[in-house]
Amino acid sequence: MVKHRISLKDIARELGVSISTVSRGLRDHPDISDELIVRIKECAGLRNYSPNPMAMGLLKQRTKMIGVIVPDLVTHFFSSVISGIEAVAKEKGYFVIISPSNESYSKEKENIQNLMRARVEGFIVCLSQQTTDYSHFEQIIEAEIPLVFFDRVCLKDKVPTVTADSFEAARGITRHFYENNAHRIAYISGPDHLNISDERRMGYLQGLTDCDLEFRPEYLEKCDLSTTSAAEATQRLLSLPLKPDAIFGINDTVVFSAMKEIRKSGLNVPKDILLVGFTDEFHATVVHPMLTSVMHPTYEMGRVTAGLFFELTENMDLPPKSVELKTKLVIRESSVRQ
Amino acid sequence: MVKHRISLKDIARELGVSISTVSRGLRDHPDISDELIVRIKECAGLRNYSPNPMAMGLLKQRTKMIGVIVPDLVTHFFSSVISGIEAVAKEKGYFVIISPSNESYSKEKENIQNLMRARVEGFIVCLSQQTTDYSHFEQIIEAEIPLVFFDRVCLKDKVPTVTADSFEAARGITRHFYENNAHRIAYISGPDHLNISDERRMGYLQGLTDCDLEFRPEYLEKCDLSTTSAAEATQRLLSLPLKPDAIFGINDTVVFSAMKEIRKSGLNVPKDILLVGFTDEFHATVVHPMLTSVMHPTYEMGRVTAGLFFELTENMDLPPKSVELKTKLVIRESSVRQ
DNA sequence: CTGAAAGCGCTAACAG
DNA sequence: CTGTTAGCGCTTTCAG
Predict the structure, then answer these.
(1) Strand order in the sheet with A161-164
(2) Please, what are the averages of pLDDT over each run of 10 residues along chain B (338 residues)?
(3) Distance, angstroms, CA A19 to C1' C5?
(4) DSSP code at position A17
(5) Could you give the CA distance from residue B175 to residue B246 in angstroms, rounded to a whole number?
(6) Which among A53, A56, A76, A302 is most buried, taking Cβ atoms within 10 Å?
(7) What pLDDT is stored for residue B56 in this prediction?
(8) Distance of A93 CA from D6 C1′ (whole Å)
């Protein structure tokens, strides 16, 4: 391999033909003689020529890059969604640039700015927890740059979205608790403005109604998704005069924190309190007792999201689709009365 | 914002000057009158001009992109190292393209191919577990493309590396066990060809010597870093006639698996067996008992690695540096006799 | 069937 | 102080 990357010019000189002939030959243009095509391809293969993406980009005004912005990189949830996105992107010859927002609104905005400068062709985004102002996304839409949301979404009337069936999942958890003889069911939610908080809360309320259980506002807790905040929410639940006998949370991380607090206060999962998580992280089977959780089709979610993205790139006038994917409650030890 | 991105040409036309004048004005060239510079910058700012990176790339033959290849995205370890790399990269106006190898040799090679085509300016790599053939890296070196390794490294005589002080850390763990009255100390290692396996094993052996403990080969176990393989290794240790009374593993994930197996077999951590992990993942404080682990300066590792990378880009003839970073044993519940 | 020339957006050397 | 020109690597008319 050499320092100087091989260009069409090099091949043209070597073969004693013009640059445009080589260009055409490489792409099987009917105007070029078969014999010459063979020679050109041979030479290109030998020196393993690959077209300069910047020259192509400049010419075609396309970078073949997609900006993906996720709240964090650490959870299996996002990691797996990204794998799905990457798989589809690769099939289409696209590159994925991953930019973590670390749950910060300003970082999210900044990432978008940077990726715009880098001329990504479009964005796939999962909202940061802090984001309540959507003007940076409005700008993307006005600039007619493709944009798709997954999991945590907004502006559904303008932007295609892929989400999980949070409502049904939360409803199912509530029923599952009820069937395991828990009647004082609590839910630790996330920030109100997030669709995932809202839908899971609605499912929880519907589940209570389904089971003829009364809704008690003190059992509906809230946190900012951080471990400390989740711990505090759990503490509030545990210090109620009538403690809940079942708790589920907006995601596994929150529930891991709850599990720790419950243990600290001398109570036992699942004997005293049943516990269920959301998103089914790898560590659900590492903790003791193993955590019952809602499994998301994460890889699939990535693939579907990328699919919608490419539909959009091909036709920006498409009305925005909203896809909802089915989840599945994986029952382990933490939610079954012994 | 508009569909057509604004170019120097647009500004030039608007101001009735030539393109090169605008170009110079934007970069405070002394030849341009102060008054004109102000007008140019004002106009550019108003229409929020940003230079087309592809045009720049084509001209300067630089993409300002770094390819980062990591075994996985899921652990806090890599996520945090990447944050460190990104921070430095951003300061230098560079972009990071993250490409997970999923611990697969072929995926690692393929990622490198793809990133080469995309004309990244260089690579920052942590070896996949499977990698024993280094020819794809030799090619990068021969092509005089900057390359730096971190954590899992090879070709140290040609490539700058940043690693943790695995030897001292493992030695320290062994001593820590000894001080907590454990004399039958086992170690679950990873594949032999990985430097991190090797150095930790050497540190373990030195630690035994330090404490006047005899090395017993049956206490040196091995796994392929997967949970199942780690579980099997643990089972082998637990079925020994003389079970170990302390175990540490090459990383936390392995040790989480060990913890699960120990519990399954009716034994207690730390009463029957002390346990220590490596890399100090977030979940170390989630499991019960909380896991003692070796904390790596991950963010710092990312920053230092990126630093070496940029030193290299500025001077490819620099002899390869090897930096070793200090770790710290964070003592929690799993390694202290009660 | 093949070559010459223009142009994507930008900088730099060369003229004025 | 400012404009003209060439060229980075490629595709695409337009001419042969």
Answers:
(1) A95-100, A65-70, A122-125, A147-150, A161-164, A322-325
(2) 70 86 87 86 85 85 91 91 94 90 95 88 97 96 94 98 98 98 97 97 98 97 96 98 98 96 96 96 92 97 98 93 98 93
(3) 12
(4) S
(5) 11
(6) A302
(7) 85
(8) 33
Question: pLDDT tens across A80-94, in order?
Answer: 999 999 999 989 989
Residue B170, token pair as written in the block: 């493992």
Q: Which residues have CB under 8 Å from A277's CB, separation 6+?
A: A248, A249, A251, A252, A254, A255, A256, A284, A291, A292, A293, A294
Closest nucleotide to residue B24 (Cα to C1')? Answer: C11
Q: Whole-model pTM?
A: 0.90
Q: Give residue B164's pLDDT.
A: 97
How far away is chain B from the Cα of A214, in angstroms, using its nearest Cα? Answer: 33
d(CA A125, CA A148): 6
Q: Select from A75, A100, A143 the Cβ nearest to the Cβ of B1.
A: A143
CATH topology match: A65-163+298-325 vs A166-296+329-335: yes
A/B interface, count of CB pairs below 8 Å: 97
Q: Cβ separation of B1 and A260 shorter than 8 Å?
A: no
Residues paired with residue A274 on neighbouring β-strands, in sequence order: A246
Q: Which helix (H) or strand (E) holds B58?
A: helix B53-60
One-letter identity of residue A334:
S
- Dihedral of CA atoms A150, A151, A152, A155 in degrees, nearest 10, equals 50
Q: Closest approach of chain B CAs to the CA of A143, in angstroms?
A: 5
Give the model confidence (pLDDT) of A65-116 as tens digits: 999 999 998 888 999 999 999 999 989 989 898 999 999 999 999 999 888 8
Contact A79, B74 (CB under 8 A): yes
Distance of A150 CA from D14 C1′ (whole Å): 48
Instruction: Match domain A166-296+329-335 to its CATH number in 3.40.50.300, 3.90.180.10, 1.20.1250.20, 3.40.50.2300.
Output: 3.40.50.2300
Residue nearest to nucleotide D13 (CA to C1'): A20
**Rounded to an integer, what distance in angstroms lies between the CA atom of residue A224 and that of residue A230?**
7
The residues, ordered by sequence, that sit 6+ positions from A283 with a Cβ below 8 Å of its Cβ are A252, A256, B256, B283, B286
Question: Nearest 10 degrees: CA dihedral of A163, A168, A171, A172?
Answer: -110
Mutate to test the interface with B, among A3, A73, A121 (most CBs of B within 10 A): A73
Sign of CA dihedral A283, A284, A287, A290: negative
Which of B54, B58, B142 lies at the smallest CB-CB distance from A63? B54
CA–chain centroid gap for A301, Å, is: 7
Chain A CB contacts of B58 under 8 Å are 52, 54-55, 58
Identify the residue with better confidence: B9 or A327. A327
- Per-domain residue ranges of chain B: 8-46, 65-163+298-325, 166-296+329-335
Q: Kindly state the tokens that stand for B180.
A: 């907590």
Q: Which of B145, B108, B142 is nearest to B125 (CA)?
A: B108
Chain B residues with CB-CB distance to A122 below 8 A: none
Question: Is B54 close to A52, i.e. CB distance below 8 A?
Answer: no
**Contacts B144 to A, Cβ<8 Å:** 3
Q: Which sign, positive or negative, has the C-alpha torsion A30, A31, A36, A40?
A: negative
Contacts of A135 (CB under 8 A, 6+ apart): none
Nucleotide nearest to A52 (CA to C1'): D9
Is B336 strand, coil or helix? coil
CB B246 within 8 A of CB B177: yes
What distance in Å separates the CA atoms of residue B40 and residue B47, rounded to the nearest whole number?
11
